[in-house]
Specification:
The chain is mainly beta. It is built from 2 helices and 9 strands, in the order H-E-E-E-E-E-E-E-E-E-H. It has one domain (20-168): Superoxide dismutase, copper/zinc binding domain (Immunoglobulin-like), CATH 2.60.40. It is globular, with a radius of gyration of 16 Å. The two termini are 17 Å apart. The protein binds zinc ion. The site of zinc ion has 7 residues, from loops.
Length: 189
């Protein structure tokens, strides 16, 4: 128990770094190729994303902020679930929704390119409960479009592109330790 407590203190201390109001995220596909960038900036109504991507199938794709700053291909399950600090249901059209990390679908043109501007409403890059940067998260693109209501992820299919959102000075340690016991087990290895 004491070890877990110490690790939690260490984690909290390690998070007390400088606030950032902008962040460029590199986006990678399942083969590990960089296929674009997401420029994040702090706005009064949330975090703006300027997204540039290439190499997608033409048409609509789901895009979500996930809870772990960890993009391990090819399936990107390491990114965890949609970021959901408020415990809501998934979906921008769901009456009990939505996750903080839920976003409108993006559309790739006939050449497979995406140029989009999105707002993650109510999110912030500054520290706090609604932060997408403190502790780290990830931005994940899906193979199919998000239907806006199905649980848990809008029936949007496989994760095809992922980018880690984390502070510049953060060492690449591990998943965000939302489960201290799991963190503890990994320390024992
Ligand atoms: Zn969601």
């Amino acid at each position: 128990m004491r070890l877990i407590f110490l690790l939690m203190i260490l984690f909290m201390v390690s998070c007390q770094s400088d606030d950032q109001s902008a962040k460029t995220v590199e986006m990678y596909n399942a083969s590990g190729d960089m296929v674009g960038t997401a420029n994040l900036s702090e706005q009064s109504d949330g975090v703006e994303i300027e997204l540039t991507l290439e190499g997608l199938d033409p048409g609509f794709h789901g895009i979500h902020v996930h809870e772990n700053p960890n993009c391990e291909g090819p399936d990107f399950t390491s990114a965890g679930n949609h970021l959901n600090p408020e415990g809501d249901d998934h979906g921008l059209m769901h009456p009990e929704g939505s996750h903080l990390g839920d976003l409108p679908n993006i559309e790739a043109d006939d050449d497979g390119q995406v140029e989009a501007e999105l707002i993650i409403e109510e999110a912030t890059l500054l520290d706090g409960r609604m932060s997408i940067l403190e502790g780290g998260t990830s931005l994940v693109i899906k193979e199919e479009q998000d239907d806006g209501v199905s649980q848990p992820g809008g029936d949007s299919g496989a994760r095809i592109i992922c980018g880690e959102i984390k502070k510049d000075d953060e060492v690449d340690v591990d998943d965000s330790p939302t489960d201290p016991t799991q963190f503890n087990e990994e320390q024992d290895e």
